[in-house]
Amino acid sequence: MSARHSRVGSVAANTTAIIVFVFMVFPVYWMVNTALKPREDVFTRDPKFVPSPLTFEHFARVIGDNGFFTFARNSLVVTLVVVVLSMIVAFLAATAVARFRFKGRRGYIVMILAVQMVPFEALLISMFVMLDSVGLVDKLAGVMVAYLAFVLPFTIWTLRGFVANVPVELEEAAMIDGCSRAQAFRLVLFPLIMPGLVATSVFAFIQAWNEFILANVILLSESNYTLPIWLAGFQSSFKETDWSGLMAGSTLFAIPVIVFFVAVQGRIQSGALAGGVKG
Amino acid sequence: MSSTVGSTSHTRPGINPTAVGGDVPDGLAAGPQRGSRLPLLLLAPATLLLLVVLGYPIVRMVTLSLQEAKLRNIVRGDTTWNNFENYQNIFADPGFWDVVLRTVVFAVACVAATMLAGTLVALLLNRLGRRMRLLVSVGLLMAWATPVVTATQVWQWLFDTQYGIVNWALVSLGFDGFLNYSWLANPLSLLTVAGVVVVWGAIPFVALTLYAGLTQVPGELYEAAEVDGASGWRRFWSITFPLLAPIFTILAALSTIWDFRVFTQVFILQKAGGITSETNLLGIYAYRTSFSGNDFGAGAAMSVVMVVLLGGLSLFYVRRMIKEVDA
Q: A66-225+253-269 — its CATH code?
């Protein structure tokens, strides 16, 4: 390839890169842009690409909405409970699967994988029926239990990999030095798989924070709404949508997740699939 | 859920290298006799939760699909067996087959678009310099991270009839027919918007996974091919594609499963657009049959059909992953 050819090629590649970047980021940018513009700049024939003058009135209005803090609190409570419990339960199970040989271990791994393939959408109906029969419909605890079960297979699977990658010799050395097995897990293994726990808990956080379908079916009274149900309620075919408010609400809802995810996943992704081409 | 809550998922599970961790080391495994009880104790909480909260609904879905179950039967606990009537009814309903066909076409179109765009973006990433690659990666991660509810609503705003920037752009480009075009008023264009949301959200996972695979392909192969005068097109089909075939297959299988299950995107667009009957996908149809149609038995039967339709692909995926664990 001649130098000139490759320079032309790289100009084309860079141009395409910018187009791809714009396509991927535009919706997020437009969300924030709409949320920051005064209403008269939102509903214009020719779009305004820069929010000037800036206004925070839509954020103030959305936060001032008397429901907002209730919904945000519900979302936070559900999410945090799911994250903490799933990490504890998954860490125990992952250690068992990665560190011990026992009868049915392989079967257990297969089960963990297979269960991830059951379409959640198909369980919506029987999940509702089950939660109804134990009085958990319209209770935050109902969605917590469901989310917990849904994030577990993936969190166990992922943590299993992290545990398996820590050399056992480290724990054995600690046990020779007089640690009990529980202490070896707590003092040696646990700190070493911290990055795995962080990555996995971000996953659990996002799942629980974003979930809409089941919450929409289970949480019936407004005082129990989570943020996604509230956001979905902005629209109906019967009334004009308050786009400024909706975009401000969406920004508040989505930005924490996006920041978290980009920070953590960016680091994980760099190692992703390394060795995937081996075969 | 993962997929699940995945579906909601966005954080797509799946191909995770760290997860492939080899066999159990011998040291601890051959520990004291206590070892035989300890792992079971460690597994107990997870197992209990999975059995009760996932296992039971799976069983209940099957039993419910064989029963007559209106909401009042469920509340009273007197659902009765009705001898495959739910299945006979849904199979005899032409509306159901329309939904199945629509779901299949929608999923296939989304998978094709995702795989094509994802591959092109991966190849692009592989060609870019460090800085541009970082820029595109951050863009991909941001789209990947956007919650589905948010993504759907923002795209809906982009496609808004009067003030949407998509219509503005199309009109500016000379497509005057899109002046005040109402995307959600027509079933086909509503599903197109839903498809755009799905594909936009799915490209990052496919592109970044394939890119990670591409970085593993030895550069000498391409150099040799270039010396032999192979075109870029030829190099892709003779080197890249065969080497990455395992990744392509897994990505296609996962994408098909996910896109077959699309729910939230279409559901929210339906709320705003008001047309449901001609835009329902299988999951939504089962939901509406149960909750609006008050026929939980038929809804459960449709759910079973959904699981069965995806069964083959899921089995394929699980077997692939098991092989990796064993490797």
A: 1.10.3720.10
